[in-house]
Design goal:
Helix 2 crosses helix 3 and helix 14 crosses helix 15. The chain is globular and about 70 Å long. The strands form five sheets. A seven-stranded mixed β-sheet has the order 4-12-11-10-9-5-6, sandwiched between helices. Strands 13-16-15 form a three-stranded antiparallel β-sheet, covered by helices on one side. Strands 1-2 form a two-stranded antiparallel ribbon. Helix content is 39%, strand content 15%. It has 446 residues and is an alpha/beta fold. Strand 7 and strand 8 form a beta hairpin. The protein has 15 helices and 16 strands.
Length: 446
Amino acid sequence: MSARYQFTGSTAVAISASIESGIRTDALPPGTTLPPVRALATELGVSPATVARAYQELRQRGLLATAGRHGTRVRPRPPVAARRSALRPPPLPGARDLSRGEPDPLLLPPLGPHLAALAADAGAPVGYSHAGVLPELAEAARARLAADGVPAGELTLTGGALDGIERLLGAHLRPGDAVAVEDPGWANLLDLVAALGLRPIGVPLDDEGPLVAGVASALAAGARALVVTSRAQNPTGAAVSAARAEELRNLLADRPDLLLIEDDHAAELAGVPLHPLAGATRSWAFLRSVSKPFGPDLRLAVLVGDETTVARVAGRTRVGAGWVSTVLQRLVLALWRDPAVAELVRRAGESYDRRREGLLAALAEHGLTAHGRSGINVWLPVADETSALTALRDAGWAVAPGALYRIAAAPALRVTISSLTSTDLPDLAAALAGATRPTPPPGFAA
């Protein structure tokens, strides 16, 4: 038991909230033994029955497990997790922050004109009985997906890509089930898998996407779902190639029971073609968010898939959030229909490509091999993340440690290129080279 954690509360609800807070902040890490019921009751000045109810509630939610004579422990993989992004070291004052993984605000389309147009033509308020997916938005979304070879018969909306993945996993899987995820992979997804009480199985990848042997190994280990990033994979920039897509389709054809989830979050910003896996299994879903091309505050993603999968997600939405705001839907539709916005997004994608490829080339000049086939991040393998981060900090740069994105993958750094300019590249590449190959301290003089 952690001697530093102070339990609080005078009711079962308050005590359970205190314990959950400790688990969430990692003050009570997995495997921690909690005090015996009577001991904690004495410490808090409450009845043993009150503490017992708190422990029971947390056991029912999957946070705690009773291990007989060994007492009550925090589950090895509790369905509450500290956010990996919160573990990112804060940049020093004045440092260039390349750790956030966000698009360049200067390259996002301005929303003001379209918001003004919506305000001028607001129409009658939408009530509960008429809310849902706007037919005109669904039609436009299907056309955009069809242009990329994605079958889009059944369609619904979610509040972003991660919201869609959460609803998909929650509708198909139960705590303890295994999920195959890319390794290294999206930190928020790894947090989500932990929060749902699911068991992640890391799948190695290269620049062309998940390795077929890695997926096969995850399936053999019992994975009931597979999450694949189509393009601009975070953090490596990988993009599924045509050859890799065909290999994966052939492998997945023998697994009709598997839930296949594809995340195309970069969408219009991606500088490489889409090679979807949609339909390779009986249960599948394809998600396309609008956040990266049009703005992170636009919490909307289009979700298409087989009839049963889409119906499950739509049904869970109706009993929860209800629907994605029709005001937001109308705004996204207006952005899609505006040729000037399409041109801005196209130019933004080209700008990201130049910045990313420029950094890869500058690193190559220093003899460093990094990865970044698409998207806004570059993945640079290193021998020691901590020493590299420290050296970069001293040089005035902040990047993300690879540990936030890894399960079993080798150490690396993630560098977000969205705010870089061409004049930044030589200095940044030199700093990265110095950080990954630091000058050894001088030896003793003879």
